[in-house]
Amino acid sequence: MREFALVALSAVLMATLSLAQVQPFPAGFKTQTIATNGTRIFVRVGGHGPAVVLLHGFGETGDMWAPLAARLAHDHTVIVPDLRGMGRSSHPAGGYDKKTQAGDVAGVLDALKVDQVELVTHDIGNMVGYAFAAEQPERVTKFALLDAPIPGVGPWEEILKSPLLWHFHFGGPDMERLVKGRERIYLDRFWNEFSANPKKFDEASRRHYARLYALPGAMHSGFEQFKAFDQDAVDNRAFLAKGMLRMPVLAVGGEKSFGPTMAVVMRAAATNVQELVIPRSGHWLMEEQPTATITAIVDFLQ
Question: How far apart (Å, rounded) are the C-alpha atoms in residues 95 and 212?
Answer without folding.
Answer: 20
